Amino acid sequence: MLPRMSGSRPVASENPPAEPSPKSSADAPQASSRRSSLPAWLDRVLGTTWGRLLFSILSGTLLFLACADFDIWPLAWIGMVPLLWVLLDGDGQPRTQQPFFYGMVAGMFANGGGFYWIVGLLQRFGHLPLFLLLIAYQALTFGLFAVIVCRLRMHLGVKVTWLAPLVWVACELCVPYVFPWYLSITQAWVPTVIQIADITGPLGVSFLLVLSNGALFDVLHAIGRAKPGRRLRAFLGTPLLAVGTIVLCLAYGTVRIHQVDEARTRAEKLRVGVVQANVGIHEKFVPGLREQQHALHLSLSQQLSSQGADLILWPESSYPYAMPRPVPGDWPVGDRRKVQSGFQTPIVFGALTVDRKGAGDYDMFNTAIMLDKEGKAVGTFDKNFLLIFGEYLPFAHELDFLRRAIPEISNFSRGTETTTFPIDVRGKRYSLGPMICYEDIIPAFGRRLFADKNPPNLMVNITNDAWFGATSEPYEHLALAVFRAVEHRVELVRAVNTGVSAFVDAAGRIYEKGPSVDPQLQPDAKPVTLIADMALLPPGGLFQRIGETFGFLCLCAVMLLGALSRQRAGAPLRFGLLVGGSAVLHGSVLVGGLLFPSGVSALYAVLLHRGENALPEALVFAASWQLLLMLSIAALGLGIYCGRKPSKRPPTMELIGAVCATTVLPVTLLGRMEGNTGAVVIVSGLTVVVALLARRLGAKLRRGSAQVQPS
Q1: 456 to each of 422, 429, 489, how far by Cα in Å?
Q2: Among 114, 103, 111, which residue's Cα sits nearest to residue 52?
Q3: What is the pTM of this model?
C-alpha cells in the first residue's frame, strides 16, 4: 500500500514498520539534512501534476523515437530516466501516489508513437475504433513497472540501477501483447549489443537498456547530493558495476560476431532469390488482376532462375489461386495456375489452401508450400499464429453475432504444428524452417521450430505487410525478426509482398534488403527482386535449450524482493494464504475438469496455453468459459473467507499473488507465451476483481454480524 503524500513528499504510512531497518532509515526523506539531487526548478516542475505528465510524455516519446524507422537508437539508453524522475524523488522514495497512471501515460505515448500505423490499418481494413484501447493494453508493462518499482523502493535499499531492469524484464515476460514487442527492438540495428540474445533472448537486451537508465538515474542523484569535489564518487560502486556489465556484454557480442563470420566462411551456401512484387492488398485474388499478378511473379522468378538461384521465395498469399488439400504439387504444363512456368528452380511460396468437407462447408488455411525442381510438393506448413481481428475472430462459430457485426474479418483455420522443408544442396540434405508473417517475431515459436527432429539450417519467412502501407511497421517487423537469427545462430531470409524483404545473417546483420512501399499511395512502385548467398549453418545458441530462463530468474528476484519489502514494512507476506489461495483456485480447475464434459486436460490446455491449438474450437470455447466460471467461483469464496476473517490489514497482495500463481506463473513455467495470449491478462484481471470485490463483501458481512449481537 502506497504511503499518503503531502505535496510530493511521502509521509507516514497507515502501517509503518515497527523498526525501520538501517537501509530504510537511510533512504527516508531528510530534506533538512540532505542536498537536493536535482536543480530546484526541476524539483518544482516534478512537484506538479502537469510537470509529471510532461516528463512521462517525454519518456514515452524518447522511447518510440529510438524504434524503427525513426532509428535514434541511443535514446533508448536514456529514455526511461524522465519516467524514473517522475516516480522517485531525490531520496529514492515515491514522488507520487499514482505511479500506475504516470507509467501508463509514458507507455501510451511509447506505444502510440510506435504503433501509429494501427490507425490506418483499422480505418482502411477493419473499421474498428480500437487504437486507444490497444495502446492502453500494451502500455500495461509501463504501468506495472512504475507501481512495482515504487513499492519495492519504498522499503528496500536496492539501487534503482539493478531494481529497474529486474522489474522491467519481469513485466515484459508476463504481459502478453497482440503485437509482441520488446524494448530491445530499439537496438536491432546495433549488432554488438544484441548478441547476448543467444543466451537470454530479447529480454537480456532490454535488461541492459534499463540497467543503463537506472544507473544514470542513480548517478545524477548522487552527483546532485554530493559536495563539490566529491562528485567523482557518484560513478563508483553500483554504477561502475553496471558499466562493467554492459561492457562485458558488448565484448561478448564482438567475440560472437567474429565466430559467426568464421562459421559463415566455412558453411555451404544456398543462392536464394526473393520476389517482392509490390501488389496492393485490394488487388489480390481479383479476377482479371490475379492473372497479371501471377504472370508478374513468374517473370521475376525466371529472372532469378537465370541468375543462378538455387531457391526462390514468393511472399505470403502471393499465389493468386486457391490450392486443394492435400496439395497435389504443381499443375500440368498449359494450366494457367502452374507455379514453375518457365523455370525449374525449387520454390517456397504462400497460398490459400482449402479443405472441402461437403457442400458449402470448408476450412481455409494460410499455407507455405515448397515445390522441388520437378514440381513435387515436398513440404507444407499452415500458419499457426493468425492475426486477431484480421485473419480470425476468436470463437467465430460460437460468437456468430460478432462475426455478423464485423464482416471485414477473415476466418482462417490455424495450423497446429511446425515443420521443416528438406532441400538438397550439392549432394547434402539440409532443412529450411518456414515461418509465416509475424511468427518470426515470437521467440517461443522459434524455439518450437528448432525443436523439430530436423532443425532448420536456414529460416525462411514469407510475409504480407501490405496491410500497413509504407509506415514504420515493416521495419519494426524486420527489427523484431533479426533476434531469431541471433537466438539460434541460423540465417534468415524474408520475402515480403510490399517490403521489407531482407537477408539477415546469424549475427542479426542485414546485408541486403528491399524497400517498403504502399501500392495504394505509390501505384507506380516497381517490383523488386533480391538475390544473395545464404549460409546453411548448424543451429546453435543456448537460448534454444534454456528459453526464457533469464526472464524467469528476474521474475523470481522481483517476487523475493516483494516479500522482503513487505517484511521491512512490518507487514510480512502471509505465504500460507498465498499458497492456500492458489491451491483453492487450482482445485477449482480440477473440479471443473471433472464436472464438465471438456475434461481436465482441456481446461489446463487453455490455462497453460499449451496444446490448445490442437483442440477443436468448440472444445476450446467451452473450456474457456468453464475455466473462467470455476476460477470466479473459487475467487468469490476465497474473497468472502478473507473478508470475514478479522485482520489488521486487507490481504490484497496475497489474493493477487494467489491468482497470478494460478494463471501467470504456470504459463511462464510450463506453457507457451507465444503471442495472442492476452487471455492470460483477461482471466487474471477478472479473477482478481472478483476476489477483491468478494473480500469487501465478506468484510461487510463480518461487520454486520458483529453489530447483531444476542441480547
Answers
A1: 9, 11, 11
A2: 103
A3: 0.86
Q: Nine-digit cell at 55?
A: 516528463
Residue 289 dihedral angles phi and psi, to the nearest 5°: -90, -35
Taking the C-alpha atoms of residue 463 and residue 478, their distance in angstroms, rounded to an integer, is 11
Torsion angle (degrees, nearest 10) of CA 401, 402, 404, 410: -140
Judged by DSSP in three states, 519 sits in: coil
The C-alpha atoms of residue 203 and residue 192 are separated, in whole angstroms, by 16
Stretch among 20-24, 76-80, 370-374, 470-474 having the lowest mean pLDDT: 20-24
Helix (H, G, I), strand (E, B) or coil at 222: helix
pLDDT for the residue 496: 96
Cα-flanking dihedrals φ and ψ of residue 699, to 5°? -65, -40
Q: Mean pLDDT throughout 553-567?
A: 91
Alpha-carbon gap, residue 383 to 434, rounded angstroms: 9
Q: What is the pLDDT of residues 308-352, one digit of tens each?
A: 999 999 999 999 999 999 999 999 999 999 999 999 999 999 999
Other CB atoms within 10 A of residue 166 CB: 24
The grid coordinates listed for 15 are 502501517
Q: Report whether 140 contacts 181 (CB < 8 A).
A: no
Neighbour tally for 566: CB within 10 Å: 19
Alpha-carbon span 539 to 288, nearest angstrom: 44
Cell, residue 206: 532490454
Please give, one letter per residue, the 3-state secondary structure of 616-667. CHHHHHHHHHHHHHHHHHHHHHHHHHHHHCCCCCCCHHHHHHHHHHHHHHHH
Q: How far is CA 503 from the centre of its chain?
A: 23
Q: Pick from 291, 363, 380, 366: which is nearest to 328 by CA?
A: 380
CA-wise closest residue to 467 among 380, 389, 525: 389
**Helices then strands (H, E): number in the chain?**
24, 15
What string of DSSP letters covers 53-84? Answer: HHHHHHHHHHHHHTSTTT--GGGGGTTTHHHH
One DSSP character per residue, 437-505 reads GGGGG-HHHHHHHHTSSS--SEEEEEE--GGG-SSSHHHHHHHHHHHHHHHHT--EEEEETTS--EEE-
Give dist(CA 478, CA 64) in Å, integer: 16
DSSP conformation class of 13: -
